[in-house]
Specification:
Elements lengths: L3 E2 L9 E9 L11 E10 L2 E7 L13 E3 L4 E4 L1 E3 L11 H8 L4 H6 L4 H10 L2 H17 L2 E7 L6 H17 L3 E9 L10 H18 L5 E6 L6 H13 L4 E5 L7 H7 L4 E4 L5 H10 L2 E4 L1 H6 L8 H6 L4 E3 L13 H10 L5 H7 L2 H6 L16 E4 L6 H4 L6 E6 L2 E2 L1
Parallel strand pairs: 2-5, 2-6, 7-8, 8-9, 9-10, 10-11, 11-12, 12-13, 13-14
Antiparallel strand pairs: 1-4, 2-3, 3-4, 6-15, 15-16, 16-17
């Protein structure tokens, strides 16, 4: 591999990491994991200034440059969790217990449970409570080497509370080392007060809600739950059209429980991602491939709901659709706050390789958020770097519950 550097001398760098094995996840490097062994990384102004085999490292002032030997251990890009519902209040543990005792989801919902219970608790919670609870969840992800997290709204389901959730998410981005990207998911479910009036609710989402979200710069993208228990194809399309008018990229909860052609629709809008996709067909896969739309697998929800319909991994690979993996952390269907667990599940349940799993929480997860400055270790990328006490990158998918993270840099700063 040829090493590269920016136009300034290495004497000017802020940190040099040496004696490293690096899983760059750069597909341009012809090696599994884009690996460079016996390597070094130079960091300047929060970005990677040089990376390559240590034997090709340009000369630098050893006395003026902070240097850390990785001692032959592995560096990877900081991990990216590209699909979470991390800001919410309340718990659904009692519903979990009820379902295990044979109570159906429909019965629980009729009793005021399900998503309605989370909406009720989130509406009642103030910003401080939501912030503190969400910060604890972010801290859990940070300890796993996660450096970027997407947070969706969707548990307010009225203008005031959708705004509240997104404001908390933005505030977390200002007061937590993890970089936060926000997604407006007003079309997550039909609120109780709009029962039987879904089109009227979509009117609200497309006008008052979205107008205020945009006016206050609260969202980086717009999402819709396109499903037979969510919103129809035509209703989803209306939200996407409204987002397009505001130049906001779109994504979609698609084909989780049935095939509503949501993936094909989001691809028509050059959407960032189609997420869940257990019932995705080849036509939808082809549309995603043509549009460059990422397939986001959410194995936590698949596991927690005890689903049996697997996403079409072979067809996705056939059409070379990028595959990302995310936690889908939420109180109802994936209360699992661990990207490492998702990597293991993606391998054991969906038969991804460990290399695909790591790409799914780095390079492809960043692409699912429309980001090209992270998820990969190369010159010019953000210096979001995780340092692991592992003998091979496959260990990150193989083992769960034993934290092998030694150091984590976000924009070149240790955390």
């Amino acid at each position: 591999m040829q090493s590269t550097t920016q136009n300034y001398e290495l004497e000017e760098i802020d940190l040099l990491l040496t004696d490293a094995n690096i899983a760059t996840m750069d597909s341009n490097i012809n090696a599994p994991y884009g690996a460079i062994e016996n390597a070094a990384i130079a960091i300047k102004n929060g970005k990677i200034a040089w990376i390559g085999e240590q034997s090709t490292l340009p000369s630098f002032d050893v006395f003026a440059t902070p240097t850390l030997s990785v001692k032959g251990q592995w560096l990877t890009p900081g991990l990216v969790d590209c699909h979470t519902h991390l800001v919410f209040a309340g718990s659904r543990s009692q519903e979990f217990e009820q379902r295990l005792q044979g109570v159906s989801y429909e019965q629980i919902a009729a009793q005021g449970g399900g998503i309605a219970s989370t909406v009720k608790a989130t509406r009642a919670a103030d910003r401080e409570q939501l912030f503190v609870d969400a910060k604890d969840r972010l801290n859990t992800l940070l300890k796993e080497g996660v450096t970027t997290v997407e947070i969706k709204s969707g548990y307010g389901l009225d203008t005031e509370n959708e705004i509240k959730i997104l404001e908390v998410a933005r505030l977390l981005g200002q007061h937590h080392p993890i970089d936060i990207k926000t997604t407006f998911l007003g079309a997550h479910a039909l609120p109780p007060e709009y029962k039987g009036r879904a089109d009227e609710y979509i009117d609200l989402v497309c006008t008052d809600m979205l107008d205020q979200v945009v006016a206050n710069n609260l969202a980086d993208a717009v999402d819709v739950f396109c499903e037979n228990v969510g919103f129809s194809y035509s209703q989803t399309k209306r939200v996407f059209q409204a987002a397009k008018k505001h130049n906001l990229p779109v994504k979609c909860h698609a084909e989780q429980l049935s095939n509503q052609q949501g993936a094909k629709l989001v691809a028509q809008f050059n959407g960032l991602s189609a997420d869940h996709i257990e019932h995705l067909d080849e036509e939808g896969v082809k549309a995603m491939a043509d549009a460059g739309t990422v397939a986001v697998l959410l194995p936590g929800a698949f596991y927690f709901l005890r689903e049996t319909k697997f996403p079409p991994i072979e067809i996705l690979n056939q059409y070379k659709v990028p595959i990302a993996i995310a936690s889908d952390f939420n109180p109802g269907t994936s209360p699992l706050c661990s990207v490492h667990l998702m990597m293991n599940m993606a391998c054991t349940l969906f038969r991804l390789t460990p290399e695909q799993a790591l790409a799914g929480v780095t390079r492809n997860a960043a692409k699912a958020l429309g980001l090209d400055d992270r998820g990969i270790l190369k010159v010019g990328a953000r210096a979001d770097i995780a340092h692991w006490q592992i003998s091979h990158p496959s260990q990150l998918s193989y083992q769960f519950g034993v934290n092998k993270l030694l150091n984590l840099w976000i924009l070149g700063r240790i955390n």
